[in-house]
Amino acid sequence: MRFSSIGDVLLTTPLLRAIRQRHPESSITVLTKPAQIPLLSHNPHITRVLAAHPERSLPQLAAELRASRYTDLLDLHDSFRSRLLRALVPGNWTSYPKHRVARSVLIHTKKNWYRSWRPVAERYFAAAQHLDVLPDGGPPEFFLGAEARREIDQWLAITGLAQARPMIAVAPGAAHATKRWPVQHWQALIDHIVELGRDVVVVGGAADQPLATALTLKGNGRVISAAGQFGLQGTGALIQRSTALVSGDTGVMHMATGVGTPVVALFGPTVKQFGFFPYSTASRIIELDLACRPCSSKGGPRCPLGHHRCLGDIGPDTVLAALCGSWS
Predict the structure, then answer these.
(1) Which of 56, 177, 187, 228 is the residue whose CA sits 20 to 30 A from 313?
(2) Each residue's pLDDT tens digit, 39-97
(3) Does one domain contain both 247 and 296?
(4) Domain containing 285: what range?
C-alpha cells in the first residue's frame, strides 16, 4: 500500500522487484491512488494494481481487501488513512521507519539524529524483512507501454526535436516555490544547451505550462514545451528519449531514474537524510552547504529567511558543467 506521490510510488519498485525474484510464484497487488496507476501499469513484477478511488469509502475498500485474503500486507505509506485501513483489515501488517522525529529535529534545530542514512527505496525493505529480501542496488523501474512510445515518437517527428540533435529534458516546475530554481537560471541554462548543439524539451504538468511556454520563446524551434500535454506514461517515454534530465526535487526526477535517463538534480530546502535523492548511480546532485538547510521536508511557499540562497546561489554554469559530465 502506497497511495502517492510519483516519487514515493516509483521508489517502491526495487522492493517489488526483489519480492518477485525471491518469490516468483507469488501474487503481488499494489494499492495506490488512480493518478499513480500509470507508474505501475506495465510493471511485470506486479500481478494487479488496485485503485484507491476517492469516492469509495474505507469500509468498502477494506471489504475488498479482506475478501482477497492476503498473506502479507505491507503499509509503505504509514499515514492516518493507511492506519485506519489496517484497522479494518486484520492481517499480517508491517511497515517501515519514517524517522519523523529525526526529520523534525533536523529541520528545526539542524542537529542530525539520523543513525544512518538510507534512501527511502531501501527503508521500504524494513516492511518486508520476513520475506527474506534485500536491495539489489538497482534503480527504480518505470516500465513504459508501446502506446506511450508511439505517441512520443509521433510528437517528436512533428516537432522536429531529437531528430538531428540530441535532446535534453528540463523540469522547471515544482509543487512548492522553495523547490524551484529561479526562472532566469533556467533560461540561461537552456540558452547554453542550445548553443552546445542540443535540443531542449520542457516537461511538467498542466500547472507548469505558463512557465514552460515562457522558456521556449527564445528557442527558435529548438526549445519546445511538452508540459501538460502527456500523461505519466507519455512523459516517461519522452524523458527516456532524452540524453539527460535537469530537475529539482520532484517526481519527474524519479521518473528519469526509472527509465534509465541520467539526472542532474538540484536540491535546496531538502537534504539527503530525508531519503529522496535520486536512487541511481546515473545521477549528479547539486546542493549548497548552508547552515539554514534543511528548512522543510517538502518545500514551502517562501524561503523562511527571505533569501532562497539554497537554489538561487546555484549558478547555470555549475549546472551546465554537471550536465555536460552526464552526457560525456
Answers:
(1) 228
(2) 999 999 999 999 999 888 999 999 999 999 999 999 999 999 999 999 999 999 999 99
(3) yes
(4) 146-327
